[in-house]
Write a structure and sequence with these properties.
DUF1825; 106 residues; DUF1825 family protein; mainly alpha
């Protein structure tokens, strides 16, 4: 069975995509959130990013050709912006840390 033939993989990919879209849509109103709303949003983003990191690690560890091609496509795509997948995760983490710090100041 191929990596993407797994119902669990398909379900997790679908859920990650839906959660990401929802959080991005919600994030457009971030400036209007009260302090508690901002904390909840940051927590949800951190949780989603950790799920994404784990999902991508499964791709990297898989011997499935399609999974390996997906990893290579991501590396190529991010490489066009001059970053690696690890740098992408690091930048997202740094952004969330800045958001937390801003929240602490207010």
């Amino acid at each position: 069975m191929g990596f993407f033939d797994s119902e669990i993989v398909q379900q997790e990919a679908r859920q990650l995509f839906e959660d990401y879209q929802s959080l991005m849509q919600l994030g457009s109103s971030y400036g209007k959130f009260d302090r508690e709303g901002k904390k909840i949003y940051i927590d949800q983003m951190e949780s989603m990013m950790e799920r994404y990191r784990i999902f991508m690690k499964r791709f990297e560890l898989s011997e499935d050709f399609t999974a390996q091609m997906t990893v290579e496509q991501l590396k190529t795509h991010l490489g066009q912006f001059g970053i690696t997948p690890q740098q992408m995760f690091d930048q997202m983490h740094a952004t969330l840390e800045r958001m937390k710090a801003e929240l602490e100041k207010s």
